[in-house]
Amino acid sequence: MACSTPSRHPGWVRSNPFHLGRTATHEVGHYLNLFHIWGDDGTGCGGSDEVADTPNQAGPNVGAPAFPHVSCGNAPNGDLFVNYMDYVDDPAMVMFTTGQATRMQACLAGPRASLSTGAFEVLVGATVVLGALLSVAGLRMRPTPRVLLGAGFVAGITGTTTSIGGPPLALVYQHHGGEALRGTLAGFFVMGSMLSMTTLALVGRFGAYDLLLGMALIPGTVAGYVLSPPFVRWLDRGYTRAAVLGVSIGAGLLLILRRLA
Ligand SMILES: [Ca+2]
Ligand SMILES: [Ca+2]
């Protein structure tokens, strides 16, 4: 259905005059707690958009109005119809006000705060999956000092913030024998975990509860250590690389799904 009526919402197909993506801007405004600029009161003057620096306005403006369009005693400048939260054509809307920006920032700091960490986790997950897929396709990174520094840096950040620390380094070491891979990753996890815990403790994000959570993992770690020899012998028969790629892709997908679910 094309936007043949002068309304912002019913559009399914991008068509003139709602072809510049401002409908998305308008809807993101709603998502971040903005109301329509005319106060959603039909054409009355009693409603408010709860923003102080937008003039009181009767009803929605459509098309490309001539300046000024005065309503609700808002002379001489009239309605702020160039605002994204009005209903004018895309080329006619150009701005949010400072008051609207403040309201959106408050929303991002409050009810929508999970957006920032969520987006970061999806980005990390997608990067890990992409890295593993590029490896499958034949891209090969040699563990030169520069590559290792980069992988270690990325793994440190992603490990501390999103709990995927292994894949970046494991992908670099995937072509090595199982012993080199296990030894390197074990050393990395011991040093990396200590660094992460120290940093988190310094910024007040590590306490007794986190220590208890960590202790809950000890039985699994011991069981893994005891049960691993037969698996290690099997993996060392040439399956190490497949295991690294499989676990990396799985971890990346899990991170993405956890956020999108
Ligand atoms: Ca207002
Ligand atoms: Ca109104």
Summarize the structure.
By secondary structure, this protein is mainly alpha-helical.
Give an account of the 3D structure.
This protein is mostly helical and 261 residues long. It has helices at residues 22-31, 98-109, 114-136, 145-162, 166-172, 178-202, 208-216, 218-235, 240-260. The longest helix has 25 residues, at 178-202. One calcium ion (CA) binds next to loops.
What value does the Rg take, in angstroms? 27 Å
- By DSSP (H or I, 4+ residues per run), the number of helices equals 9
The biggest sheet, with number of strands, parallel, antiparallel or mixed sense and barrel status, is:
none
The global form is elongated
| Helix content class | 40-55%
Terminal Cα span: 29 Å
Return the structural class.
mainly alpha
Strand content: under 5%
- Number of E-state strands: 0
Bound molecules: calcium ion
Uncertain runs are 1-6
Q: In sequence order, what are the helices and strands, one letter per element?
A: HHHHHHHHH
Question: What is the strand and helix layout of this fold?
Answer:
Layout: H1 22-31, H2 98-109, H3 114-136, H4 145-162, H5 166-172, H6 178-202, H7 208-216, H8 218-235, H9 240-260
The structure holds calcium ion (2 copies).
Residues 38-39, 41, 44-45, 47, 57-58 line the site of one calcium ion (CA).
